[in-house]
Design goal:
Layout: E1 4-9, E2 15-17, E3 32-36, H1 38-44, H2 47-51, E4 85-86, H3 89-95, E5 100-104, H4 115-128, E6 132-136, H5 140-151, E7 155-161, H6 166-174, E8 178-182, H7 186-200, E9 203-204, H8 211-217, H9 219-230, E10 242-246, H10 251-266, E11 274-280, H11 285-291, H12 317-325, E12 330-334, H13 336-347, H14 355-369, E13 379-383, H15 391-396, H16 408-414
Parallel strand pairs: 5-13, 6-7, 6-9, 7-8, 10-11, 10-13, 11-12
Antiparallel strand pairs: 1-2, 1-3, 4-5
Helix pairs in contact: 4-5, 4-8, 5-6, 8-10, 9-10, 10-12, 11-12, 13-14
Length: 416
């Protein structure tokens, strides 16, 4: 069954066949939505065909993905996704919420949400016979591409700003990718990647440019749907989930929205969750457009310790604005100090988040304070990456451990 029909431009609404374009709309540069054959999927599959699956990865949703089975059995490529959902009572009580869940994407093979997009893009690369896959990244997307590529012996080239955290650069190198550190911003690396892909004929994974990235990221929405379907939450029509996610270039939030829209189109989901995007105050181009009531994304000079969401010109901004606006959600802005507090708070619940991952929780705290979220509103927060990605930032969130002499007296002086 060919589920993949083609593409739909998010700006001019032009339709393209699956073999007419590869990245963005040739007319206006708009992001392309992958168009699936919903009628064929409904005819051939039922929800229980998915929920009864045994594969503990995003590939359990292969019937809803525009790629064939990529192979790679027994490798990290088949371990992306299917991350745990926790229900931390301490955090719920602190916020006065009756129902709070945290989906921990740090459990992915390379420890971030970006494994989802990279796994699907690598699957697409194998389908079309691409020799080299290239991407620009502040670290996580590159690590994900490098790791997923290494799993199936796919050559990968990564352009990253020279300022990316050392732990993330280490991942790129350990996974065997060719790494080029750009003396500039993420946006500089992004533009250079596209030029290199055009010059050398490489397949470009860039977020907010390659339409298959959102298809990978939508699998988190499919997992959220399956989790709450199993708990029979969606059967209550008065019950509406609120999802909080950090936003940089906008592709994760637009991917989540796409996943929920696919489920609605199939008739497998009756109530669209509200989606809340959270941005750092120093990198708020998408939130600025949302609050201005427009879809025009004006670049900013991004500055935030949350490097994974530090973006001057978001490449998926329009769809990111729509993800909140069309679902009845909103955007929330948080300071770097609030992000550091959120890292520490999540840590006390046993979840170690990098700054971008903790940003979503900081946004929930702010949303509760602003009255956007009430005590009875069910909330799911996405932690998009592991704190081990940026230990330097993590150490700013806590008090350093004292150094003592090896005596019991010294212990007594400092013990709480």
């Amino acid at each position: 069954m060919n589920k993949f029909l083609g593409y739909h431009c998010s700006l001019c609404e032009q339709e393209y066949a699956f073999n007419e374009v590869q990245y963005t709309c040739p007319k206006d540069g708009g992001n392309l939505d992958v168009v699936l054959d919903y009628a064929a999927i409904r005819k051939n599959y039922k929800p229980e065909d998915i929920t009864s699956g045994v594969e503990a990865s995003l590939w359990r949703y292969l019937p809803l993905l525009p790629v064939p089975d990529p192979g790679g059995l027994g490798t990290p490529l088949r371990a992306a996704g299917w991350t745990p959902v926790f229900s931390p009572p301490r955090l719920a009580a602190r916020l006065g919420l009756e129902s709070l869940w945290i989906k921990d994407e740090s459990r992915n093979p390379t420890a971030s949400f970006k494994d989802r997009a990279s796994a699907v893009v690598v699957g697409r690369a194998r389908e079309i016979g691409a020799q080299v896959v290239v991407t620009a990244s502040t670290g996580n997307a590159g690590a994900a591409l490098a790791g997923m590529s290494a799993a199936v012996e796919q050559k990968a080239v990564i352009f990253a700003p020279r300022t990316a955290p050392p732990a993330k650069i280490a991942q790129l190198l350990i996974f065997g990718a060719q790494v080029l550190l750009v003396d500039g911003t993420y946006d500089d690396a992004f533009d250079l990647t596209i030029l290199a892909a055009q010059e050398f004929g490489w397949y470009c994974r860039n977020t907010g440019y390659n339409p298959f990235t959102a298809e990978g990221k939508k699998t988190a929405a499919l997992e959220i749907w399956e989790f709450f379907t199993r708990e029979k939450r969606f059967e209550n029509r008065d019950w509406r989930l609120n999802v909080f996610v950090s936003v940089g270039d906008g592709n994760i939030i637009s991917g989540l929205h796409k996943g929920f829209k696919d489920l609605m189109a199939l008739g497998w989901l009756e109530q669209m969750p509200r989606i809340y995007g959270v941005q750092a105050e120093g990198s708020a181009a998408i939130a600025n457009a949302f609050f201005a009531g427009t879809e025009t994304i004006t670049p900013v000079s991004a500055k935030t310790l949350a490097d994974s969401i530090s973006v001057d010109l978001p490449r998926d901004g329009v769809r990111a604005v729509r993800a909140a606006r069309q679902t009845g959600g909103s955007y929330v802005l948080v300071s770097d100090d609030e992000i550091l507090v959120a890292i520490a708070e999540l840590g006390k619940a046993g979840i170690f988040a990098e700054p971008a991952g903790a940003t979503s929780y900081a946004g929930l705290v702010k949303a509760v304070q602003q009255g956007l979220i009430g005590s009875s509103d069910p909330v799911l927060v996405l932690n998009t990456g592991s704190g081990l990605k940026d230990v330097k930032a993590a150490m700013q969130a806590v008090v350093e451990a004292p150094i003592i002499e090896p005596t019991l007296a010294a212990v007594k002086r400092v013990i709480k």
